[in-house]
Specification:
By secondary structure, the chain is of the alpha+beta class. It has one domain (1-66): Double Stranded RNA Binding Domain (2-Layer Sandwich). The chain is 24% helix and 21% strand. Strands 1-2-3 form a three-stranded antiparallel β-sheet, covered by helices on one side. The longest helix has 16 residues, at 33-48. The radius of gyration is 16 Å and the shape is elongated. The two termini are 15 Å apart.
């Protein structure tokens, strides 16, 4: 799956900031551009992991595609 990410160099701390606009709050950083990209890949994977949720015993779950 492809995700658009935005990289910006922060001169104050000499690191690359990176975030995914389609995933609010999904951000990361790295000392190099490559490290920042690797870190945002991991952040996106963690962001998309489903959280366990205690459903009611008779609850029905479905998946939908948008």
């Amino acid at each position: 799956m492809k995700w658009r990410v935005v990289l910006e160099f922060d001169e104050e701390i000499s690191e690359w900031a990176v975030w995914c606009p389609e995933l609010p709050g999904c951000t990361s950083a790295g000392e190099t551009e490559e490290e920042a990209l690797e870190n945002i890949r991991e952040a996106i994977e963690l962001y998309l992991q489903p959280d366990p949720y205690p459903f009611a015993p008779k609850a029905v779950t479905r998946e939908v595609f948008v």
